[in-house]
Fold this sequence. Notes:
Blueprint: E1 2-6, E2 15-19, E3 29-38, H1 41-47, E4 58-59, E5 63-70, E6 81-85, E7 100-104, E8 108-110, H2 117-121, H3 124-137, E9 145-149, H4 154-165, E10 169-174, H5 180-185, E11 190-193, H6 199-205, E12 210-215, H7 222-227, E13 229-237, H8 252-255, E14 261-264, H9 274-286, E15 293-298, H10 302-310, E16 317-321
Parallel strand pairs: 9-10, 9-12, 10-11, 12-13, 13-14, 15-16
Antiparallel strand pairs: 1-2, 1-4, 3-5, 3-7, 3-16, 5-6, 6-8
Helix pairs in contact: 3-4
GO molecular function: NADPH binding; oxidoreductase activity, acting on NAD(P)H
InterPro entries: ADH-like_N, ER, GroES-like_sf, NAD(P)-bd_dom_sf
Protein name: Zinc-binding dehydrogenase
Amino acid sequence: MRAVVLDAPGPVAALHIRELPIPTPEPGQVLIRVQAFGLNRSELHTRLGLAEGVTFPRVLGIEATGVVVDSPGGEFEPGQQVMAMMGGMGRVFDGGYAEYTCVPVAQVIPFHSELDWPTLGAVPEMLQTAYGSLTVGLDGQPGQSILIRGGTSSVGMATAILAKQRGMTVLSTTRNPAKAAALTKVGVDHVVIDDGAVAARVREILGDGVDTALELVGTPTLPDTLRATKVHGTVCFTGMLSNEWIVEKFYPTGYIPNGVRLTSYGGDASDLPAAVLQDFLDAVAAGTATVPVDRVFAMDEIRAAHAYMEEGRAAGKLVVVP
């Protein structure tokens, strides 16, 4: 099989396409023929040497979408459509940047859909993170407002879509005014141009601040996001598009505004129920939800795809078809 291998952290030139043996699954594992896989900041962190616990050489990819080839334990049928994510994929063991991937059964979610593979390939980690952040991290409720900091990321756009399905008022940020249309297209009510300090603008729109806020940029913008949130509102720290996720010399009383709640979310495949995945795919097929795909690449374009991601040029998900 062809696979994208990283021998050690480095620039995009460190990504190499190689011929590797197709993995042989053992009981408790599933061999999947990969039809599409999404790109994630997690893989960028691994390539840049920012991720912990990674051994090299490694086939990257914390997610993959395709069909079952073999499931020795009988958990899945050959030919069954599945998505796989997390659990050490692309870090502890070889991941989804390949024509085949072998993963633990617990990381696999079945589904049925006639959507095209690039669309399906964009969904797993994006939906898992957006759904978990909105439900577990924020407990978002109908009628509430939400600020999405880092709104043109794939998770940011997916969260906006899910929030609008729940009847929430959505404010979403972008540093690039040219990307504003992409946000309104997925239902964002108020686009806020992010110059690093948006709390005042948010309070011009909603005087007391937002009920909930999703922090996807990282620790550089987190204090401002907290200031944009009302008393008894909740901020969920999920992403780090800035590649910064540590708060130095953290003093809670001076850092967190009075009465504002700060939570976090980091999920796994088990945090995305199969019924939620299927309902979302059915909604996309019915035209009542969308999958924000920015661009689809071939595997031979993996270096260009990583450069595109690293430069922050996307508005939505980047997908690769092997």
